[in-house]
Every structure is written in C-alpha cells, then in structure tokens.
Amino acid sequence: MPTEPAAATQGGLTLRELQAIPVERLKGIGEKKLASLHEVGVETVLDLLTTYPRRWVDRTNEARVSDLRPGVEALVLVTVRAVTKRTMRNRRTMIEVQVGDGSGRLHIVFFNQPWRERQLREGLQIMLFGKADVYRGGLQMTNPIVDLIGDRTGKIVPIYPQSEKAQLSTWEIAGWVESALERCSARGFADPVPLAIRRELGLIDRHSAMRQIHLPETMGEKEQARRRLAFDELLRVQTVLVMRKRAFEREQRGIRHDMSGELVRRFHSALPYALTGAQARAIAEIDLDLAGPHPMHRLLQGDVGSGKTVVATSALLAAVQGGHQGALMAPTEVLAEQHATGIRALLADLKVPDPGNLFGDRSLNVALLANRVTGQQRRDVLAGLADGTIDIAIGTHALIQEGVEFHSLGCVVVDEQHRFGVEQRAALRMKGSGTEDERVVPDVLVMTATPIPRTAAMTVYGDLDVSVLDELPPGRTPIKTFWANGPLMEMAAWGDVREAVSNGQQAYVVCPLIEESEKLEVASAQETFERLVHQDLKGLRIGLLHGRMAPADKERVMGEFRNRELDVLVATTVIEVGVDVPNATVMVIIDADRFGIAQLHQLRGRVGRGKVASICWLVTAELEGTSPRVEALVSSTDGFELAEIDLDLRGEGTLMNTAQKGKSDLKLASLRRDRELVHLARKAAFDIVDPDPTLAKSPLLLDEIRLVLSAEDEAFLFKS
Ligand code: ADP
Ligand code: MG
C-alpha cells in the first residue's frame, strides 16, 4: 500500500517550483559544467531530476570474467588495468585496454575510437557489453559497448545518458541528482494523483518514485518507480485528451436519434447473413451514441474485409429513420463510386416508412455526388439534398467542404482508409461548430482500415471513442502468403499466375515502390510490364496502371480488368486504394521489402475477396538474411497483429512524428511497452475529469499539464 510521506502532505515541492530553481544552485556545478548541462538541455532542477538513467546496472547480478563464453554476448563489470594506444599502418588507431575482475582478465580492443584513451583511465570501473572471442589463447572483446561506472557505490548503479561532446559523465550527473534529491527531501514532492487512484492502481507515491528511479535499492524498486513516473506522463496526455473530449461533448448539441424506428430493423433482418459478434458490438456502441444528446465522435477500426460497410450503413439509416440524412465521405472519387454501388446494393428494396405516403412508405434515395456528376443531374442531387428527398449522399470530402446544403444532416461517416485524415476531421468539426446558434452537430463515425494498436489509438485518436471489428465474417478462405527470395522462386509466382488465369481467375502484379520519384516508379513499372508481356507472362492479356496516367485512361484499364478483358493488372500502388475485383485471386508484389507492413497488408487485401482461396507472393531480390517485414506478412494475416509487429519494429515514430516525439513529455513511457499503463491512465483521466471537468479540484495536475506539455504538444493533441 503506498504511504503518504509526511512531508508531502504539508505541501511538497511542485514541478513548477523545481522548474524555477536553476540547476547551478546545486553544489559542484561550475561555469564549465553549467555550459555542458545547458548543451544537453538541462537548465533547471526539474530538468535534472527528469534526466532519468537510461540503464541500471545491478552489480550483484552481472557475469564475471570467468563466466564469459566465446561467441556469447554478455555484460561484465570490470576495472581498467592498462590502456595503450597504437597507430596502425593505415593510420587507423587501435586502443588496447586490459581489464579484469577478481575472477580473471580480459583484453579489449577499440578500432578508430582514439578518444577511448582519454576516457578509460586506470582504476576506473566500467561495464562492458559485447561478445568475447578467443584471441591468442585469451579472451578478447572488440568494440564493446562501454558504460562508465566511476566510483559510485551501491548495489544498483544508474547509468545516465552521457555526452562525450558535452563532457558530462554519468557519475557527475548521478552526484548532482543525488544532491538535488537530498535538498528536496525535507519537503518531498507534491503528488498530483489522488491517493484513491494510486491505491487502486498500486502506484507508489511520487516522492518515493523520484528517489527510486535514481537511487533504487533493488531492480524491483526501480521498476515500481518507472511505472509510477511513466504513468504520470501518460496521465497528463490522457487528461488533456479527455478534457478535450468532454468539453466537446458539453459544448456541442447533437441529435437524439430515434432508435426505435422500423428502418434499421428492416435493414438488419434483410441482410443475407448474420452479423458477426464484432459488428453487433460496434453497432450497439454506435446506437448508444446516436441516441444520446451529444454528437458522436467515434472511430471504427476494422481490417480490410471485416465488414465495416454494414456497420456504417446501419448508422446512416438510423439518421434516416428519424427524418434526417446521412452522408458518407470517401478519400477518393473511385472509392466514393464503389461505396455508392455497394451501399445501393445493400439497401436495394429497402423502404423508408413515410406516413405522408398512401402506402405508408417510399423507397430510399441514395445519391452519388462525384465530379463526373454534372449539369442537370448535379443540380437535381443538390436540390434533393437541400429539400431532404435524398436520404443518403455519398461523395468525397467535397460533400461538406463546398457548401453543399443539407435539409438535415444527421450522421456523417468518414472513410479514411489507411490515412489518418486529421485535417479532414478538423474541417468537419469546424463545420460542426457552426455559426448559427441553433445548428446541431451531426454524429460522426470515422472508419479506418488501418488497424492501429488500441493503446496507440487512444493517444492518436485520443478524443474519439473507439469501436473495433476484430473478427472477420465466417467462411473466408485465408490468403496464403509466400516469400519468393530471388529469381528462382519468382518463377513459382508466375506459375501461380498462369494457373489462376487458366482457371478463369485474374491476378495483380504490384510494381516496386520508389518513394523518391514517381517518374522512376513509372519507368520501373513500364519495365516490369514489358518484361512480363515478353517473357514471364507471355501470351496473357496484361494491362498497365500507374499514377501518371490520365484519369480516363486509368478508368478504362480498371474497367477492362473488372470486365475480365484483362487477365493481369500490372500496377503501381495506385491499386492500394479501392479496387474491388473478387475474381482476382493472385497478387505478386515485386521488391516487397521496399514497402511497409501496413502497406503490404493493404495491398494484399485486394485479393481474398471471393470464394476461391487466394495467394500472395512477396518477391524480393535474393536476400542473405531475413526480412522481418516480409516474414511478418508471411506469418500473419491479422491486421492487428501486424500493426503490433509494425509498432515493435518501427517504434513510436510510426505514430507521432519524430519531432513531436522529441518534444513530447513521454520520457519514460512507451506506447509500445506500456500498453497496459496507457489504459490505466486513460481510465484514471476519466475518473478525474468527469466529476471535475475543469480540474478545479486538481490544481496540481492542471498546473503540471500547463508546465510540461509544450505548446506543440498541445497543438498536436488538440489538432485531432
Ligand atoms: P471492409 O469495408 O471492412 O473492408 P466490407 O464492408 O467491404 O469490408 O465487407 C467485406 C465483405 O464481407 C463484403 O462482401 C460483405 O458483403 C461481406 N460481409 C460483411 N459482413 C458480413 C457478415 N456478417 N457475414 C458474412 N459476410 C459479410
Ligand atoms: Mg469496404
């Protein structure tokens, strides 16, 4: 049970107070060291105390020199015995260091690191991490990773980020941190997290955490401290997001949709299949939002093929059944048209109850508003939207952006595909916040096919609620994925294409991605096309599609493929978005290792849409080692699993760009490692904000948010 340090209850030190103390007030920081500290961004005692160790060395638990095995990486704690420098014939330097512990000796060589001569002095304790090899009868490590321990005592030694350039050593930082903690100990640190929440989550108090992160007695203590301080970082971010969300809900008037009507029920019972559990769950979550007084802001996440369309349509119909209209916005014209076709098919024969009509109902009107809808046709659509005779409008973002007037827009579905579309969402809200006082804000459902790990979604889409379709409709034959490592195996891929075509099916060939230049990409696509036409797929009907073609030409080629006048479509990633040809059962992706995991997954989603089992070949040049992304795709077809792997491989950078991350307050917390903690922080943020929306009763937390989150952070968090 966390105990309250006596000092803290009498008004412990706040982060703002610590931020107000210049670091040079600590003993032993002269002008030169102060300049060094400034160079690494440490100006105040708060900066110093939040310069956390990057590692902790447990002296009681390291290998001894006598435990080292040739060829096996290990960490050893040793003392420097002798250092010599040699210049070799090619003028490269070699530093040789003799080290040892009570159990034996070890020989270290550093190539091209002349500064090691100054760094490693006799008698110094250092930690080495590396692989020992047998050399001239003894053990030798070459270019190991070195941590200087200095003369610090204690079982656990914190290793701070050191800077050779700024001339700061870990023991200097450790010394200053220790004296800062010493000076703070009388008052202790104020704790912004209510005791009840700390108890519930098993978090230690901040005072103990600050001490234990820097001066742990055991690794367990360090872990507890890290958990608490990482929680603080996440709580600040989540509190901002939750406040934002709640303020939004408070300030905007939504529509209480009529959920008791006939229309949605008719729609569900007319479906040729049963909803999946995930679809039913998402629909129930959405219905609750729709019935409520506040506008919905919900993210619907679901992998390609998870059945988002039915869920979205159900939401649009809920608006229609109460006498309002629905709109679906797609990122591209092609997609808008596909949605229009798909949704019209889903709604065929569905009648809208209409008490004004002799038969008690009328047919439902779905209109497409695309660029190619022009002239009188366009005027009719616009008139229908304005007088309410059109129930559902489908188009691109132009639907809301170009002053199209709706009779009563009740629900908007935004299909973002794999983009985050932050700007579009912002635009929608701007529109929503409206000029006229009495205007109500439509409910908004954002659909994305990019599965992002749930905890990450909570941060990136932190002011939205999230529904997840984590289940595919039954009866799918999973896509088999293979890796063609080199030209020999590539032949097998072309064999599969021919076989599929001879069975009346079709295939996609995706050309290498060349991010730097579309021109090069097109050239390479043409090359691939020629090669396939004249060699590997000679005799088949092959079409080429790339980003530099005129829209009409693109449409023609797509049309030919759809109508089965082409067997094979060779394309750049333009097919990534929105081609739906269930008869295509083979996909070959060339130079697959140039693509990211999410992109490969999206591409692969173009096949496996029909009843026949589909195949995806990932072709690379012959690779010696592994290709973790290609292997991930081979091993899994689950978008969420792949998203997790992607997050592991690429780190947080995937989600927040590097600049933002650098600035952000997340020093200890990791969206990747601390998934559990993100959940807890989000829940705690609701617990704190809901009874106290302006944080009047949590002034300390509010103050910390203001202090610690930079203007950029806030802008980033608020942008969505
Ligand atoms: P998404 O938009 O999530 O990629 P779609 O909504 O296009 O997926 O649905 C993919 C396919 O699955 C469609 O052909 C659709 O008819 C079918 N489908 C959707 N829900 C179900 C279900 N519950 N049972 C069987 N098939 C379904
Ligand atoms: Mg779809």
Quick overview:
By secondary structure, this protein is α/β, with parallel strands linked by helices. It contains 27 helices and 23 strands.
Structural account:
The chain is 41% helix and 19% strand. The protein has 27 helices and 23 strands. A hairpin with a 2-residue loop joins strand 3 and strand 4. The two termini are 38 Å apart. The model is unreliable at 1-9, 418-423, 430-436, 652-664 and 716-720 (pLDDT under 50). Adenosine-5'-diphosphate binds next to helix 12.
End-to-end distance: 38 Å
Low-pLDDT windows of residues: 1-9, 418-423, 430-436, 652-664, 716-720
Major sheet summary line: 7 strands, parallel
- Report the radius of gyration as a whole number of Å: 31 Å
What oligomeric assembly is this protein in? single chain
* E-strand count: 23
CATH fourth-tier homologous superfamily of the largest domain: P-loop containing nucleotide triphosphate hydrolases
Question: Which terms summarize this structure?
Answer:
alpha/beta; OB fold (Dihydrolipoamide Acetyltransferase, E2P); 4 domains; 7-stranded parallel beta sheet; 6-stranded parallel beta sheet; 23 strands; disordered N terminus; binds adenosine-5'-diphosphate; binds magnesium ion
Write the layout of secondary structure elements.
Elements: H1 6-9, H2 15-19, H3 31-39, H4 45-49, E1 55-58, E2 73-87, E3 93-101, E4 104-111, H5 116-119, E5 125-135, E6 138-142, E7 145-150, E8 156-159, H6 170-184, H7 195-201, H8 206-214, H9 219-251, H10 263-270, H11 277-291, E9 297-302, H12 308-321, E10 325-329, H13 333-347, E11 351-353, E12 361-363, E13 366-369, H14 375-387, E14 392-395, H15 398-401, E15 409-415, H16 422-433, E16 443-448, H17 454-460, E17 465-469, E18 480-485, H18 487-502, E19 506-510, H19 518-536, E20 542-545, H20 551-562, E21 568-571, E22 584-589, H21 597-604, E23 615-620, H22 628-635, H23 639-650, H24 658-663, H25 675-689, H26 699-708, H27 711-719
Parallel strand pairs: 4-6, 9-16, 9-17, 10-14, 10-15, 13-14, 15-16, 18-23, 19-21, 19-22, 20-21, 22-23
Antiparallel strand pairs: 1-8, 2-3, 2-5, 3-4, 5-6, 5-7, 11-12
